[in-house]
Design goal:
With 275 residues, the chain is an all-alpha fold. Helix content is 67%, strand content 0%. It has helices at residues 11-21, 23-26, 30-35, 41-51, 59-66, 71-77, 80-84, 87-102, 111-121, 131-137, 145-170, 175-184, 192-196, 200-213, 224-243, 247-255, 257-269. The chain is globular, with a radius of gyration of 19 Å.
Length: 275
């Protein structure tokens, strides 16, 4: 009898669950959906809807858990959001937006099987040090397959994101430096500086630090050494993520990975996610 090696979750699976999760921020209906419950503007909707899984946290908690955003940007949205809209209303709006946005992408996809496979693996996640994953996992999930798929995708997206944050901070990377390196490596869009709220002075200081490491050259193009370093950070994230998932959970996720990838590709094809 031949030996069967360990089941490995491909990067395409992690990209798929991220794509499914992100619809509540990228949907053209997002701003109007959150404004309908009392929030003001795109970024207040983003910070409040994503952070509501933690309760009604102050801006410092969100700066700590989201990473990559200039703190002043978070402070403009929180805690004001919690006085403008009820947490339960924000979460309910998020569920509705998620269902409405992902539904067209599931044509030809066995939603029931995908929901069952993803949800079956969630008890096998180690939540220590992964607050956003834990907050999403703790939500009461509406009793329908689309909601169950989106919920599981959100838990998993934040699970890997929490692991990535631990790797970045463990390596001494603050939010702005992480963004500068990601842009240079082609992993984030050129407008990331403005999107995340960093000033020119903050961005240049971070770039100067990376040039000092030999990871960027004089015109802020990533060097071979910088690319190796960024690849190592990603590999370390893979290891940290995998270390927190039981073998049984990996098998559940792997059994429906192709369904998740198909759905995510159809989301991209619909123009909801530009990647």
């Amino acid at each position: 009898m031949g030996h069967t090696g360990p089941v490995i979750l491909r990067r395409s699976f992690w990209h798929a669950v991220e794509t499914i999760h992100h619809v509540v921020y990228l949907s053209p209906a997002a701003r109007a959906t959150y404004e309908a419950v009392g929030l003001k503007g795109t970024w207040m909707g983003y910070f409040a809807s994503r952070a509501a899984v933690l309760g009604t946290p102050g801006p410092e908690v969100v700066v700590a858990t989201f990473h990559g955003f200039a703190p002043r940007m978070v402070h403009r949205a929180l805690p004001d959001a919690w006085s403008l809209a009820a947490r339960d209303d924000i979460l309910e709006a998020r569920w509705a937006l998620a269902r409405e946005t992902i539904a067209p992408a599931f044509e030809g996809v066995d939603v029931t099987a995908l929901a069952a496979g993803l949800q079956a693996g969630l008890p096998g996640l180690e939540l220590a040090g992964r607050p956003l994953a834990a907050g999403n996992l703790g939500l009461t999930v509406p009793d329908d397959d689309l909601a169950a798929v989106w919920h599981a995708a959100s838990v998993l997206r934040e699970f890997r994101g929490d692991s990535h944050l631990a790797v970045l901070t463990g390596a001494g990377f603050d939010g702005v430096t992480s963004n500068v390196l990601a842009v240079a490596a082609g992993l984030a869009m050129d407008g990331q500086q403005q999107l995340r709220g960093w000033t020119d002075e903050e961005w240049e200081a971070a770039a100067a630090g990376l040039r000092g490491r030999g990871w960027l050259d004089a015109d802020n193009t990533i060097t071979d050494a910088g690319m190796v370093a960024r690849t190592q950070l990603e590999s370390a994230t893979d290891r940290a993520t995998s270390a927190g998932i039981s073998r049984e959970a990996v098998e559940h996720f792997a059994s429906v990975a192709d369904l998740a990838v198909t759905a995510s590709k159809q989301l991209v094809a619909l123009g909801i996610d530009p990647r």
